[in-house]
Write a structure and sequence with these properties.
The chain has 665 residues and is mostly helical. Helix 17 (390-414) crosses helix 19 (442-460). It contains 25 helices and no strands.
Length: 665
Amino acid sequence: MPAWLSHPLGWRSGPVPRAAVVRGALSAGPLLALGMLTGHLGPAVLAALGAMLAGVNDRPGTRRTGVVHIGLPAVAGAFGVLCGGLLADGGGRWAAVPALFVVGWLSGALSVAGPVWSAAAMQLLVTASIGAGMPLEGPAWLKASCYLGGAAWLLLLRFLLRAPTLRRGARWDGEREAVAAVFDALADVLRAVGGPDAGAARRRLTAAQQRADESVRLMRLLSWPAGPGGSAAVHRIVARFGAATALCEAGTALLWEGRPLPAQVAEGPRRLAAAVRADGAPGALPSPASDTVQRGAFDRALLDAAIAFDRTDPAVGSLPYGTSALPPRRPRTVRRSAGRVFAPARRENGLRVALCVAASTAVALSLHQDHWYWLPATAAFLVKPDLGPLFSRVVNRVAGTAAGVLVFILLTAATAGLDGHWWVIAVVVTGGALIPVATRHFAFQTAVVTLLVLSFLYVAGDTEATVARLLDTALACAIVLLVGHLPHLTDPRVRVGHRFAVALRCTERYLSHVLETPSADGTPHPTGASYGTGTPPLGGDAAGVALRHAAYRALAEARAVAETAAAELPGPRRTHRHDWPAVVARAERIVEAATVCAVRVEQGVPPPSAAEVREVTRALAAMADALEEGRPPTAATAAPAPIECRSLRDVMTHLHGIQALTTAA
């Protein structure tokens, strides 16, 4: 079975998020019940809608990450309701077509920036369509306030519904768990070195590092007065994550070396993870066995971690991770800023979203006098780039909508003899509780969301349009499937190449930084001594750590986009399919080799010559430019003179492999 046909059947597994289920049950249902009691059904429906869409973004993480992952999309959604309401109040019906085209282009361009921005862009577009087409009374600012209030209610529940505990310092348990997960993932990597599962273990380690990095940074940014001993607790978490960063860097060198390790090597990170969770000391750690440069770097990082865990005075020791300045940014001219805004990947995705939404809006306005918003709102969900391949989204959207409509019709028939609409509250409470589980499959999520939205509309007085919603969904799917496969509009090489280009550029800047040479565009990178003290913080200087994290983060995003592109339905411009998984594997090896180069130089191995570094960074920059622009690499990445440095030679080997994989027409 081809990937485009089997993808709709995939199901993500995992534990049930019980806390999120409870929050979902208490989010939209009570708001809707309050509106029914007070007679303000319109504001209650908008508040319940805000709580429902906030529940879609209610993912596991710390309370502070919840502020960003829920709050930013909620603010964007409220702005969309405001814009849609102003459009409905001041413009004609057909003014919605060009207006939603502009909003769609902005939403599509923002969706490329990352998962949080993608969620915010999707809510902006969906709520703009709903605000312009849903006939609810009240001024636009009141509608936006009600929507934002519903999302704020769910965010408040996230802060209040915590597991009861009397242990001192429990407020930082989320950050401690995130840091401990990094040590556990590193232990899994060390056990898998030299085996077939090493690559998967390395990706899990990257994901754990990204979650911990976000948690620690937000902890420092959003911490309120910690009280007695609180600042020391924050310092310990930051310092221990710095130790984890340094240890992971050395572990990457062992992974690159590929020699199986004794089982006791993984015991050190396991004990460090337990110490982080208990906020205590790790006890005795495994003895060193430095038989290679890479193993020596790991043993030294383990010793530094033991010292960091034993340190109790926040004022003693090197500068902890995260306190130094952010990495230097290249001067941003008007031309460079415009180039980022109109980059091929942003331009392509923005144009596709804008055309799909505008076409859906025009068809809906031609068919419906009222309630035309369902078509463009459905198109907005379908063109969200990180929900899977387009064909898979279309199939799951139709199946999920049909299931939701059928369940709602059966519920309506079963409760026909009951007085009032109070049975709808039970449906909304149940649907809200299912949302955190339904995110595992797009069809399941669509069915739950459809059931909830139909319940909102039923309470608001729209009791006759249930079957029409199914027909509108099928029509929107047909429009999106047609526009999404136009021969001159979409090219997966641009969308996937953009992610790889970001990773390669971060790798080029990381190599230039750690080897103290200018980057390919001539921008110098300062050394760690420029960041506050003469001693670099744990895990390397902040600029190098940030650049390496950015490279791995871009690789994780590239892998997700590559897997989606590999499962797309073949179209007119897809006669040739690049082997994107192989490109991802080689790009991961490039970043690992760059990390190993930094580790070896730090251990006293003679650094590569300036000519070798310039040759490698020039090739990385040339490959990034070619992938960003969606064109085959040219002779700019041709093989240079022989390179003596093993890790840099490995970089060039895999770079030429990427060139061979992406050159074919």
